[in-house]
Design goal:
Elements lengths: L1 H12 L9 E3 L5 E3 L1 H11 L3 H7 L3 H15 L7 H32 L5 H19 L2 H11 L11 H40 L7 H15 L2 H12 L5
Antiparallel strand pairs: 1-2
Helix pairs in contact: 4-5, 4-8, 5-6, 6-8, 7-8, 8-9
């Protein structure tokens, strides 16, 4: 009887459930957190995933070029926004595949095999993304944001992400508009020719955009426009070189 009461008191005294926070200090001074807190941090970071996909990958350049191309062809809703987003998303996966493969090999797999800690895995995963963005960022844009942030680094590779990300987005928008301008020119020439012919024929009440649309579609199909645009976007990131 007494032994049973003692066992019951001991069971009540023991904490039940998972510990919310466990901090382990390593011999080198770094700290490791419990799995429960890591899962919480991971779930919280998922809310930033859309912004990461849009701002830290090739998505921005691709979607802007696609939108300019649709406007240049005179098509208001074809292809639809959903199709353009799908094209940009899967093209981004294609362009970013070498980076994702490095992250998987150097960070994710060693972490799953418990060869590195979570903090080390994050640092290793950061390096391929950092190198990709740095390779696509213009030095002028990088210097602009370095001056705004009053940041000084010895090497370009040491630029922090808080400076690199806005510089990268600025460079991507500039590159996308340059590609869009080159795509816009042939369609603009067709519009000018059609407008001149209609004016010479006295058919000023007929919309030039309506008449030029079939010719622009025919030209785009004959020159394999989609293949050229996709190939140009892929090679603009250094793929195939």
């Amino acid at each position: 009887m007494v032994a049973g009461l003692c066992a019951a008191e001991a069971a009540i005294a023991q904490p039940t459930g998972l510990q919310a926070l466990t901090v382990i200090t390593n011999p080198d001074g770094s700290q490791e957190y419990s799995v429960t807190l890591q899962v919480l941090a991971l779930m919280t970071s998922l809310s930033f995933l859309p912004s990461i996909v849009v701002m830290m990958t090739s998505f921005t350049r691709i979607i802007v070029v696609m939108a300019i191309l649709r406007q240049a062809m005179g098509l208001q809703q074809t292809p639809s926004n959903q199709i353009l987003l799908g094209i940009a998303l899967f093209m981004s996966f294609f362009v970013m595949s070498p980076v994702l493969e490095r992250i998987n090999n150097e960070a994710l797999q060693p972490y799953l095999k418990e060869q590195v800690t979570s903090i080390e895995a994050v640092k290793k995963a950061r390096e391929p993304i950092h190198q990709f963005m740095l390779a696509q960022t213009r030095i002028k844009d990088l210097n602009t944001f370095m001056d705004i942030a009053d940041e000084k680094v010895d090497k370009v590779e040491d630029v922090p992400l808080r400076v690199l990300i806005p510089a990268f987005v600025t460079s991507e928008l500039k590159t996308a508009f340059q590609i869009g301008f080159m795509l816009f020119l042939p369609f603009l020439v067709i519009d000018l020719v059609v407008a001149s012919i209609l004016m010479a024929m006295g058919m000023m009440m007929l919309s030039p955009m309506l008449v030029s649309l079939p010719f622009k579609l025919m030209l785009f199909v004959l020159v394999d426009g989609w293949g050229m645009v996709m190939g140009t976007l892929a090679t603009s990131f250094g793929m195939g070189t």
